[in-house]
Please model this.
Amino acid sequence: MAHKIIMTVGYPEMANTIRRISRELGFDVVIVEGILQEAAKEVKRNVDTGDYEVVVSRSGTAKEISKIVDLPIVYSDSDHFDLVKGFKKAKELGEKICFITYPEEGFMFNFKEIIDIIGFEVMILPYKTQEELISQIKFAKESGIEVVVGGGIRAAEFAQSYGMKSMYLSISERSIKRTLILADKVARDRIRIKKEAESLDAVINASEEGILFLNEEGKIEACNQAIERIFNVKIKDLRNKSPEDLKNDELGKLLKNQKIYMEKGNFTLGNINISYEPVILNKERIGIVITVREVSQVQKLETKIRRDLHKKGLLARFTFSDITHQSEQMKSVIQLANEYAVTDSTILIIGESGTGKELLTQSIHNASNRKERPFVAVNCAALPENLLESELFGYTEGAFTGANKGGRQGVFELAHEGTIFLDEIGEIPSHIQTRLLRVLQEKEVMRIGADHVTPVDIRIVAATNQKLWNLVQEGKFRLDLYFRLSVLHLNIPPLFQRKDDIPTLVNHFLSKVNADQTFEDFSTQLQHFFMTYRWPGNVRQLENVVERYYLRVHHTNMEEQAFMNEILNETEVEESQIGGHDSMIVETGTIGEIEKQVILQMLDRHNDNKTIVAEKLGISRTTLWKRLNED
Model:
């Protein structure tokens, strides 16, 4: 980006030298001739009408410029070598010499050392204003001075008017070049900082949250447009103001709250939520960043995001920690699922309805590298065949009557880079199975009515409550698709096979309905019912039954026996099934062979407890033993 430098000089000859050097360097340098207030006013006039980034000037003039111009200033002055050279040249013009100089504090010349080098005296006459300059030249005349060195073009004019000779103090070309290069760097750095500041302004102004920066003095150094909207103020009325100086009472009250001057945190005032955090530079606190949010706007945004995500099914809410369990069977399932989560391989989950297949799938997604990407769930049994195909693969405009203008993405495209959960995968019709196989093999999908494919990067988790291999043998499910889906296997056991989970789950569901009871508070009869009932609806049914218990038994004093009978009648289970007398499948054979099969299955169900089995079969332990040992 092109930029201009403005530089003051005390006399014309120096101006010519600077123009030549700046051309050699390729710099755009505008020169103002003059000193002190006169030069400062001319610099300001140029700066007000031009695009300048930096000023180069000598000591006294630089100080005057700094009072009226808001630009960085690079100082350009003679060094000791320039003085020695200048004084020796002045000696050739006269015996008595004076040096007119602006005494810059902290950067004074070592005149004693210079005079020792040149071997003759030079009168030093300091000045700080134009009036003092004229006064010192008069004094030089009265002191018999023959040559006046320095002071610029005006000093030369005055000296000559008094009959004295004058000489400009030159600056070496090397010093000029170094000064201009430094000025160019300052200009470039300033442009870079301005760009960064403008970018930062653009970023913070794009935020709907109000942002304030308080410097170490507690004054507002920066803020964004959202602050204007939230507090109905103007940015120009806030900058460089202390909380005490603010006319807006609400903002003033916020900034006077001593909490924001402590460590980072947040609090709420009315409809405003405030977050604050100190800014630390080199272990020193240099200010505070304050973020202001309207609670109502946050609530609206959260509601919209959740509504949109739920509408599209793109949100996985559960993790493995949400799976309530106690049994070793479920611990093994979760451990295996955790191991599977870190891969991208397809998973087939098999389990009865209500065992938590989607809960497990969401947990797998949230434990995977895809957790920040979409999670899309599709129940393949819930959609008619024609809708299922368009839902999975999408369609183009005009693909069929009623197709949306512009077409629509299918769930495979929506799940790009994320996870897709295909529940009840066994219900997919054969022609859709063929298209699904292509997605798995080629990692690409073709919309209905399209003539091109779209690549997709998805992880598929399929689930079924059917014996999928039986469907393959019956010709209802493609063999190649089965093996594509069952790369990794997870089997969720039904609830009656993991009875250790029942008390833990009951307690979990009781806490959800804010009950003050636990499973341990149940009567022995009710505990026995929960532990021995087969739970055909699994965990989902258990949750519903616990809620019903809380409403009917706990609140309306329904008899426990009536409650249990009601559950049994709903699922058409005979009361005799309570206690573990589930149905059995036995192979045909002799009476003795069938008896032995029944005994062995009963022993398996009752952990090889022969006393209980003999009691339930109505025989003695001796008879039981004989039946087991008969050939």
Notes: The CA atoms of residues 520 and 527 lie 8 Å apart. DSSP finds 25 helices and 22 strands in the chain. Residues 173-206 form the longest helix (34 residues). The chain has a mean pLDDT of 86.
